[in-house]
Prior knowledge:
CATH class of the largest domain: Alpha Beta
Radius of gyration: 25 Å
CATH topology of the largest domain: TIM Barrel
Number of strands: 17
Helix content: 40-55%
Strand content: 5-15%
Bound molecules: 2'-deoxyguanosine-5'-triphosphate, calcium ion
CATH architecture of the largest domain: Alpha-Beta Barrel
Number of helices: 24
Structural class: alpha/beta
Oligomer: single chain
Strand order of the largest sheet: 11-12-13-14-15-16-17
Number of domains: 4
Largest sheet: 7 strands, parallel
Distance between the termini: 45 Å
CATH superfamily of the largest domain: Metal-dependent hydrolases
Amino acid sequence: MQNRQVAAIFNELADLLEIEGENPFKVRAYRNAARTIEGLGDALEDMIDRGEDLTKLPGIGEDLAEKIVEIVRTGKLSKLEEVRKEVPDSLRALLSIEGLGPKRVKTLWETLHITDPDTLKKAAEEHKIRELPGFGPKTEENILKGMHLLKQEGIRFLFAEAEAYAIDLKAFLQKAPGLHTVEVAGSFRRRKETVGDLDILCTAAEPQKVINYFIAYDKVVKVISAGSTRSTVILQNALQVDLRVVEQKSYGAALQYFTGSKSHSIALRKIAVDMGLKINEYGVFRGDKVIAGKTEEEVYASIGLRYIEPELRENRGEIEAARDDTLPRLVTLEDIRGDLHMHTTYSDGLDTIEAMVQKAISLNYDYIAVTDHSATLAVVKGLDTKKAAAYLEEIEKLNSRYEEIHIFKGMEVDILEEGKPAMDDAVLDKLDIALGAVHANFKLSGKEQTKRVLKAIRNPHIKGIAHPTGRLIGKREPLDLDMDEIYKAIREEGKFLEINAQPERLDLNDILIREAKEAGVMLAVNTDAHAAGQLEYMRYGINQARRGWLEKGDLINTLPLGKLLQVIGKG
Length: 571
Ligand code: DGT
Ligand code: CA
Ligand code: CA
């Protein structure tokens, strides 16, 4: 049980209780607990094993501590199970529509008896929603837009959410009777930013035993099918899992097939056909004779290709590169030497600067940039000129106290509508790394938006642009920006674009990352951590960097400190 899953349970409980009209203080207590848990550096499971007192954590009292133990020990919370029975299932689906929180869902339910997306859509189209208290024409329009976004994407899960389930399920399957290997294939293995379902591949002595064991997993809420070698189930968070048990001798071929992508595999099969071969999930065949299939390397080699990393398997030129031996040597998490975007209690982060520094040291980083927000209407808890002085002083103090790491004085500065940074030049002068970021006025025209960001890039104080397109997966469309213009300006100014590793941002995305690389743009993968534990989100950003074909040399935060200082003009 991962901290993220525990937090998700509290968040869901808070949402449902709010829909039910429970006491707001109680609701807030669950939400705060979820936030605390998400930001913990340690696994709750380990803390409980060590006998640590959970009530020492901020916002966790006796009752919540007991509930945490219940979740970690049993995988469920009985209180949540009770409340789930009281609120219709389809109401929960409404919560994932942008613009609809529990409060509004409650109103829709009580006044218009809306309990599912279809009745909601109808009511919005008939303009019944705008009349409700706390709504209006704008909200009504946003709801329709939000539904559109949701529909476009289908029901997909953020990689990070699927990952929590995948890790737990994989560990569970490893203990299945007679199991040899288990691997999560599909889009999950390709590290796509969202996954539709999990595809798990096993080899085992007796497949049926593995299937029986699998469908008894405690997070399974529905068994859709269970045959002798394959099964499909639904987990408690609505995630579907397809499991297949294959023979050892065709494991490589099966792994290749079920990793996909479909379009990549179809292209491989075509090459095979041209060579008089046949590839399917059981192996590579010449006539009836198997010539490869045990490992993926074998399968690729049999048609004259180098092994292709799963993240590249989208049929976007990787097959040609494998044939010509020009595949990139993809960057890895171990190549990363520091993180250049994070928040602390000086703005909207949960942990102190010192806690972030200590966590970064535990990750073996050589440097970090602490980059709290500048204060604006969009980010009210941020730094003003006065608070910034104390903040910079504290960073300096910690920088001399912790010799093993270099702490850059940074700030995430709002780019105002006209393209100016929301901070005095006198403060900006004192910073090592100012990141420009858009946090409001998302709807400007493409021309105006581009002009706004270009102006920030040309500002001598700004070193990089954080989450450049501003998208939130499944919730907010990217800014309408002329990216070629952005790349050009970034390159000319010697600045960098961020690959933001927050699970719902992953911004730039894989396609733009590759474009940026080809345009000769410097990039950095940053976590934008709002708690010490989130510094570990780096892996999500690395996934996307790899999908964008990046090598170590494409990221400035793989550089040793001395080189990085030169790049940001401080060397
Ligand atoms: P997802 O689940 O929508 O995020 O994407 P995938 O890629 O995991 O797709 P999924 O779960 O439908 O199927 C898993 C893999 O199985 C897919 O990546 C390739 C393989 N596969 C599925 N259908 C076909 C097909 O019709 N032809 C071929 N060649 N492969 C297929
Ligand atoms: Ca899948
Ligand atoms: Ca599937």
